[in-house]
Structures are given as structure tokens and as C-alpha cells.
Fold this sequence. Notes:
Layout: H1 4-38, H2 48-63, E1 70-71, E2 80-81, H3 87-99, H4 105-134, H5 139-149, H6 151-156, H7 168-183, H8 187-203, H9 211-224
Antiparallel strand pairs: 1-2
Amino acid sequence: MNDETPGRGRLVADRGLLLLALLTGVAIRTLPAWKAVLAGPVTRFLGADSYYHLRRIQYAVHHFPSILGVDPYVNFPEGARIIWPAGFDLLLAAASRILLHPPGPAGVERLCALAVPLLGLAAILAVYALGRAALPAPGAGMAALTFALLPYPVIYSLLGYVDHHVMEPFFLALAAALLLSSWTREGPAAALFGGLAGAIASLSFWFVTDGAVMVALICALATWE
């Protein structure tokens, strides 16, 4: 009983810190920007890149699954190839088509503004998963809370900041968590988790511009081990 109680207490503290990370994370990602973004009848976005992502998302909503790969409005009149991967914009376009009936422009804008903090929370959960794979309790909860408060993740997951960078820590942390989890298993389970780690790292190429960096970091982690 005495040996189990400290372990149970650490696990409770770990989960409590995760809950605090999620609650604090959603508060600092939504409340400061709420009035500027959603207070009026028109959704206003943070950052110039957000508006271009919305252009591609609105296009994809009406032409799904097609998306602007070459945009005639960029470098007019010749047009230019868009360097951003399509996954982030297609994800929000698909969510708009599924959740909105009909997916009008104003509703799509509101949904996209609100979706970004949720993607930020997904990154917090991925960091927690990485902590569970690498640290004794309550280390994962402490890692999640620390990540939830870091300026860079907060900025890119603010309400109304529609940018694919919000997904970078999610892919990296989740791939690393799966890779570390594969090392604690044997046989088919180890192969499954290792394969999932590679699949998540590879999938990042479709969502973020630095997918190659993520794959390199995951490979370096595997090589180091």
C-alpha cells in the first residue's frame, strides 16, 4: 500500500497538470484575441498570411478536393506556384464542408478562426504523450504545461491566426512519442509503433513546410538511441 500510494499520487498530479495545461492553454489562446477577432459581425484575422490561407480554404470549400496549387492572383498576370503544402488548408476546408450547412464564406471564416486554438490543444496533448513516453510522472504533465505557456506555440495557435505553423509541434511531438513508445515494446507492437512514428513524420510533409526537418530530427533520435 505504501509503495502504491506515491505512484498513484504522481499519476494524479500528472493528469492534474495536463488538465491545467489544457484549460490554461485554451484561455490564453482565445481570450486575448476574442474581441479583436470575433466581437463584430465580420471575422478579423491576425497576421497577413492568415488571409491568404483563407483564400485557399474558401476555394477548396467550393472545389473540394481541388486547391490552388498555382494562383493567378500571385505574381499577376503570370501567376505563381504556392509553396505551402495543401494539407492544412484542405483540413479546414473539409471541416467546413462537414460541420457547416451550407458552408457559406462567413461561417467558414468563423470556423477557421476557432479551429486554430483547438489545433494548439492537440499539440499540447502530443507533447503530453511524448512526456509519458520519456519521463516518469508527473513529468509529462509538467512538460505539457510548460509547452502550453511557451510564446512560440501560443502565438501560432492564437484565435484567428490561421497558419499551418500551428501543426509543426503536433507532428514532431507525436512522431517522437510513437518512436519512443516503440522502444519499450517487443515484436509486432514495436514494429507498429515504429511504423506509425515514420508515417506521422512523413505525413507532416503534406501539412507544414519543414517536414524534412522533422523527419531528420526523428531519424537523429532513432540513430542516437
